[in-house]
Amino acid sequence: MKSSTQVFTRLIDAALLSGFVLGNADVKVFAFWMVSIMAALMFAGLFAITPELAEKIQGRSPLKKAFGILVHALYVAALIYAGYPVLAALYAVISLLIRLSAESKLAPKVSQ
User: Fold this and answer.
1) Most exposed: 16, 18, 54, 110, by fewest CB within 10 Å?
2) Does 31 have pLDDT greater than 80?
3) From CA 102, how far away is CA 104, in angstroms rounded?
4) Among 12, 3, 1, residue whose Cα is nearest residue 71
């Protein structure tokens, strides 16, 4: 069962995505700034990934991983549709770097 924070997070995601697709110019600008702040926080969090956090990111079921990737892809598509391709590229790169960083934290270390 999902916790209340996960439900709240998905509702915020849905509101931002629908703002990009269905909103007027003011709503799109607001959503742009919210996603910009989110991307900056994701970038800052990239340097704070610990093995425990990497386990949370990578240790989920394949269905939850696929849903997380789908949400990121929807953000990229909505950003491009709304006319913000640079932010879409930045968001895609940051989310890919987070996934790669989490994977590298969990990779076994080979000592020589």
Assistant:
1) 110
2) yes
3) 5
4) 12
